[in-house]
């Protein structure tokens, strides 16, 4: 099988699947290394395939278009975390990360890749089963999520729902508006 044939087969598998397919599973299916699969996915994306990396593998964007993203600042108790995440995924969003802006330490970020209630359940099992606590505990419950969706309209709905449930928090004057460019600028200056 040529690389092109393998990439076509990977794309067909993703089109037919209603769940995430791990890089390891694809590697076993085609008897190649996981690194070859990572390269295949990169090539498919470069050709315009809307493949998203999720918590447990790869998946095609729901409407076949590239996803849009928005950062939401939220606040809630640790007991409300699942309610907040379920609200986002129920509205069609995918929670890519969680981060806090600490006045001393700066931005502390962790990937999440949550796209379903099942992913939320896995998160809850992991966080409650270990000796870890939510990142937001260091900032009195305030934290941020980068959320992707298939359209800006979906992100607008998520924003409205977060506000309606009392989860949306207001940015403060000392917080940078564009978190990522601020971090890139700091890295350049170091």
Short description:
This protein is an alpha+beta fold and 190 residues long.
Written description of the protein model:
Residues 6-58 form the Helix-turn-helix type domain. Keywords: Metal-binding, Nickel. GO terms for molecular function: metal ion binding. The protein is α+β, with helices and mostly antiparallel strands. It has helices at 3-16, 23-30, 34-46, 81-90, 117-129, 152-164, 179-189, and strands at residues 51-54, 57-60, 68-75, 94-102, 106-114, 142-149. It folds into two domains: 3-60, Orthogonal Bundle (Arc Repressor Mutant, subunit A); 68-189, 2-Layer Sandwich (Histidine-containing Protein, Chain: A). It is built from seven helices and six strands. The protein has a four-stranded antiparallel β-sheet with strand order 3-6-4-5, with helices on one face. Strands 1-2 form a two-stranded antiparallel sheet. Helix 1 (3-16) packs across helix 3 (34-46), helix 2 (23-30) packs across helix 3 (34-46) and helix 4 runs antiparallel to helix 5. The longest helix has 14 residues, at 3-16.
